[in-house]
Design a protein that fits this description.
Strand order of the largest sheet: 1-2-3-4-5-6-7-8
Number of helices: 1
Number of strands: 8
Distance between the termini: 63 Å
Helix content: 10-25%
Structural class: alpha+beta
Radius of gyration: 19 Å
């Protein structure tokens, strides 16, 4: 009987601890991430309900006098908008185990929007996969967490 009570107590403790683990997973996506080429820092944040989004936090080739613009955008009205601060990742939902799916990525280099997913490889590494139609028709890139970063001139 004593063993049964001990097992029940252990199960209860683990059950109560589970929500905090989920919060830890959520918190790991939120924050600053440097791209592989080190030309940008992206900020992931909670945007709508249970969704996560990402915006340009810092761009290497950006300044107040010469801001990086969305000049490849097919919409003429948007070609002059600054990239710094632009939300170009969105719709990501937590699928569990560090997987965030159902998202999209806007490629400013191509002026196109693609489906996307994010996988947390560990606390400091994520893999972003952009694709058309199905995930295996895409490309992945790993980003590294950064604790601090300069901000875009427009955001400062």
């Amino acid at each position: 009987m004593r063993v049964l009570i001990s097992l029940l107590f252990s199960f209860l403790i683990l059950s109560l601890a589970e929500p905090s683990c989920a919060q830890t997973n959520e918190a790991t996506l939120i924050g600053l991430w440097q791209t592989k080429d080190k030309e940008a820092v992206i900020e992931f944040y909670r945007c709508e309900g249970d969704e996560f989004c990402g915006r340009f936090y810092w761009l290497k080739d950006d300044s107040l006098s010469e801001p990086s613009l969305d000049d490849k955008n097919p919409d003429p009205e948007l070609k002059k908008r600054p990239l710094c601060g632009l939300t170009f990742l969105g719709g990501f939902t937590d699928k569990g185990d560090g997987d965030y799916g159902s998202g999209w990525v806007y490629s400013a280099r191509h002026g196109s929007k693609f489906s996307a997913s994010v996988k947390l490889i560990d606390q400091d590494t994520l893999e972003l996969r952009g694709f058309m139609f199905v995930p295996f028709l895409g490309r992945s890139e790993e980003w590294q967490r950064v604790v601090q970063s300069p901000q875009c001139a427009l955001l400062s």
